[in-house]
Structures are given as C-alpha cells and as structure tokens.
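== Fold encoding ==
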Amino acid sequence: MSTSLDQYHDVIVPPAIGLFPLAEGLYMLLALITALSLYLAINALRAYLRNSYRREALAESRVIHALKDDGARFHRLLKLLRRTAVAAYGREKIAALDGKVWWSFLDEEQELFTAEHVQAAQKLLYRDIIPASELVISFEQACERWIRQHKRDDHDHL
C-alpha cells in the first residue's frame, strides 16, 4: 500500500465563535456594573459640588494671606470664617451665634482657636487694636485647618 500525502484531505476548521451574543448572565453583570459606575460617578459629582464652598474659601484665604496689613488680614479672616460656616451649616444655625457661643461652635470638633485668637478678635472688632503678626499667622493657619476639616451638616444647601 502506498501512502501518499495527496490522498489525505485538509482538516476542516469550524468557524470562530463570535463574541456576541453574550450569555444572559453577562448582560445582567454588565448592566449591574454600568449602574454601579453611574451611581458612584453621581455621588462623586455631588460631593465635589457640595464642597465647592471649601475650595472657594481656601482660595480666598490665599488672597487674604497676600495682604500686608495684619489688621485687614485678621478682619477678613473673621468674615471668611462666618461665610464658610453659613455655607456649611445654614444661615438659621449660624446667624444667632456670637461671642463665646460662636468660638465654642468653631472649636466643637477640634480645638483650633486659642484664647489669644478670641481676645485678638475682640480687640480688633471693638477697639481697633491690631494683633501681632505671629498671632495673625497662627490664626490664618487655624482658619485654613477649620475650613478643610470641619464636618458639614447632613442636609444639602445646594
């Protein structure tokens, strides 16, 4: 018997299996991943928008830092703290706070503001006595830390 390669036929390869249509379970998994991604993106956007007042306040604090007049810097920082608190907690809660109640509110979560800061604020507001530069610098640092780290109320002000 002679065996010649001419007598053999080529192997017939079946057509390649396509990627689509997918199994039903994969469609459900893709839908779940898409929904989860959309949910996370929306929450991230809401958090970004909710914290826009912080970014604006920090940008303004950098502008205030560039001022040369210590009295003007201290005074503008006091105003910035008040506006930031109103943005974070609402006018209803913040408007009534003044004096010791205001400072204890600011120090509720973390003690950033010293008695010297409080006294300097009172002297500046009521007697136009400008605080020392070192005190203004430490007040600036305390304000920036408070703006970055305070906890916001759960309700939205958007």
Summary: Residues 24-50 form the longest helix (27 residues). Residues 21-50 form one domain. Helices lie at 24-50, 52-65, 70-89, 91-94, 99-106, 115-127, 133-149.
